Each structure stands twice: as structure tokens, then as C-alpha cells.
Amino acid sequence: MNFFKVLEERRSTRAFQDKLIPKKALQKILEAANSAPSAGNLQAHSIVVVRSADKKNALAQAASGQDFITRAPAALVFFAEPTRSAVKYGLRGARLYCVQDATLAASFAWLAAVAQGLACAWVGAFDDSAVKKILGASADAVPVVIMPVGYAAEKPRRTGRRKLEEISRLA
Hints:
By secondary structure, this protein is α+β, with helices and mostly antiparallel strands. The protein is 46% helix and 14% strand.
């Protein structure tokens, strides 16, 4: 799919078909995430692929009952790794750069999913401690996003965007 068509097709989808994601498609999504730029090429993030119904249920509860997470065949959870980034960039790396790394990886993953006819949603509202416990993450890992992925069972309407003049300026 053409890149600009991918951007046009991207939506936040919260209804998924009961259809598994092919292994090859998931591999391409993870490869796209891995190709994202990162501060100092430290790649200060990690991804947990969640397919277990029990773990998806627990994640949905940790995300204030956002049950659509349970209906996706997979959920990708992106973690920032502050310690990895702090080695080179100190406090700024630990507080910001690792989160940017995880966010870029998640964005690349989402676009790769759309390019393959899949759909996602960005879930940022959740209990960090609960997510870490559910997935056995390290003490210093910071969950950044839960991203349910699957074949859409809906086509959400395109949401409006601010005018370019409102979000950009020349300096």
C-alpha cells in the first residue's frame, strides 16, 4: 500500500474480527517497529506480544475496563527502558528519550499493521504498575502504550484535524 494511503486509512479501531493475525504479518509489524529511529541508536524500548486471553483480559482491566483489548487477536505492549537510555544521555534519556523511542516504534508498528490490512488502537490510559505485573516487566520499565491489533470489524469515521496553520509556523 502507498505510504500516503496508509496514513489516510489509519483509524483508531476498537472492534475486531475473530480472525488470527498471520505469523508473517506480525513479523513485519515487529520488524517495522525495530526499524524506527531511536536516540543514539540505543533502541531503549521493548515490545511484549500478548495473545493469551487471560493476559488480554487483565490488561483490559488495568486499562479501566477497555474491553475491546480482549477482542483483538493480539495486543502489543510497548515499554520504554530508561536505564538503557540513561547510560548515554543521563536523566534526559531516562525521562524522555526512551519514551520517544517506544512511541516511534509503536507508530511504525501501527503503520505497518495498516499497510497489511490490519487495524489498531492506541491505549494510553492504564495502571502502569498493573501492566508491569501482568507482563512480568522489569522494575524500571515504563509501559507507554497498549496496542490491540487485528482485522477491523468496523470502519470508524475519519476524525477531523486542526488546520496546518494552527499547528505549524515558520521561524
